[in-house]
Amino acid sequence: MAMASDDTFRLDADVVDYTIVALYFAVVLGIGLLARRQVSSSIDFFLSGRSLPAWVTGLAFISANLGAVEIMGMSANGAEFGMATVHYFWIGAVPAMLFLGIVMMPFYYGSKVRSVPEFMRKRFGTGAHLVNALSFAIAQLLIAGINLYLLATIVNRLLGWPLWVSLVVAAAIVLSYTALGGLSAAIYNEVLQFFVIVAALLPLTIVALNKVGGWQGIQDKVKPDGEQLSSWPGTDLTGIDNPVLSVIGIVFGLGFVLSFGYWTTNFVEVQRAMASSSISAARRAPIIGAFPKMFVPFIVIVPGVIAAIIIPELADLKGGGKGDGVTYNDAILLLMRDLLPNGMLGVAIAGLMASFMAGMAANISAFNTVFSYDLWQQYVVMDREDGYYTWIGRIATVGATVVAIGTAGIASQYDNLMNYLQVLFGFFNAPLFATFILGMFWKRMTAAAGWTGLVSGTAAAIVVAILSEDALGGASVGVLGISGQGASFVAAGAAFVVDVLVSVVVSTRTRPRVESELKGLVYSLTPKESLTDPDEGTLPWYQSPTKLAGIGLVLVIVLNVIFW
């Protein structure tokens, strides 16, 4: 994790830029202090008292995902692979977000669970619950390390501090407002951070487009060839040479397993929607978030494509050179260094810091909920007063932040962090989605199938990653001949298929629960009226989840066709 301050490029900030960043941090901490006044119970701390309007939770929903990986990772992908990266948005996000709003959120919200693992406990019992809670907690600590590493990188490039000092300072900032105000502090900061991120990246994109000569300039100058501007078949992105197999990998591995696994069962995202004030608002939250999600590629991926054209170090790296020590993760930072004047640079730095803090705070707030409710209260200390578990949540927040400083070291080993993140999703999200979706729509699935399917699916993903070329760095052996994000798509597909097969086999040999116990947990056994608000039919079109989802689906299909 050694990244000394004297052998990397610096961002040439002045007093105006530092003032803008300092003001931003003052506002962030102020929100944390204000949110603390509203925390009187554990539901307030962990789920904002289920009181927030849909537009707030919708923007928080998407802002929680606009973390370090979204900004740095997707721009790195844009620089390395080009416009095929849009699949992470238009195939690998929006359809699943719409599905979550229409089908899944009524189950989460209506069952009054406080977390996704708690839903698993109600459906499958303690075995699947414990496996899910542990794997989720581990995943959040690893992903928080990614966000923290990149936040510390900004501090390192801005102030020249050694990376380990930057890590500690960055962690302390996020810890302060998350521990003070719980989920409300995280959510309100995420709404602020959404606007700050857009205010930072939109001008940078416009300036970069002007510098390269507009879209025509990109078409004329992109390397190695114009295929970088086509989204299909995406062979560079997947690392799968056969175009048909590459498309299958994108559609099944990314578009179905990884995408639906992340957006519909990842408590980091679901927690924001669960903080809504009603079932209808909870359903609208991910659907509202889908609209800005569709257009994020234009301020994240396009700048990455341009950076690989106009930044000499990146152009050299892409051409097979050493790039003077830079990596694709540096694409946005290098654009800021070369294109933005002082003042605008300060806004951009604040925007990047906002994105990294949003991502890390989302990981930490989800971790402290699962740790407190699903592990500590369920298996360690039961039946204590409510305030005790709020206190445990704050302790867990501190512990998770400390551990994230360590896991940031793992993230620092990857030149393109999307490779690392997709490996983690294949391990943790893909098997969970298989178990979840099967249990929700198949009443015969048993408790034993729940935990055995999860364990088997995770094991399958790990085996594929080890047999791939570089998915796990030095631990990989390269037998399968696939690498990078394509290996992650294959690992996720394997996890899903193995999980389903094991679950079906085990279910046929074990006893199912009686149907009366599965009301609200299995689709066919749940009365429709319990999944909707009584007045939902009278809402105007712009507040109707199904109408909004229909508009979103049409828009994302149009975008896919335009950039075919």
Question: Any overview of this molecule?
Answer:
It is a single chain. α1 packs parallel to α18. The chain has 564 residues and is an all-alpha fold. It starts with 14 loop residues before the first helix and ends with a helix. The protein has 23 helices and no strands. Helices cover 72% and strands 0% of the residues. The longest helix has 50 residues. It has a domain of 366 residues: Sodium/glucose cotransporter (Up-down Bundle). It comes from Aeromicrobium terrae. One of its GO terms (molecular function) is D-glucose:sodium symporter activity.
Distance between the termini: 39 Å
Please state roughly what percent of the residues sit in beta strands, choosing from under 5%, 5-15%, 15-25%, 25-35%, 35-45% or over 45%.
under 5%
In total, how many beta strands?
A: 0
* Helix and strand pattern: HHHHHHHHHHHHHHHHHHHHHHH
Instruction: Tell me the structural class.
Output: mainly alpha
CATH topology of the domain at 3-218 and 263-412: Sodium/glucose cotransporter
Helix content: over 70%
Instruction: Give the overall shape.
Output: globular
User: How does the major sheet shape up?
Assistant: none
Task: Flag low-confidence runs.
Answer: 1-6
What CATH architecture label of the domain at 3-218 and 263-412 applies?
A: Up-down Bundle
Helix segment tally:
23
If you average the pLDDT, what whole number results?
79
CATH C-level of the domain at 3-218 and 263-412: Mainly Alpha
CATH superfamily of the domain at 3-218 and 263-412: Sodium/glucose cotransporter
Query: If you compute it from the alpha carbons, what radius of gyration comes out, rounded to the nearest whole angstrom?
Result: 22 Å
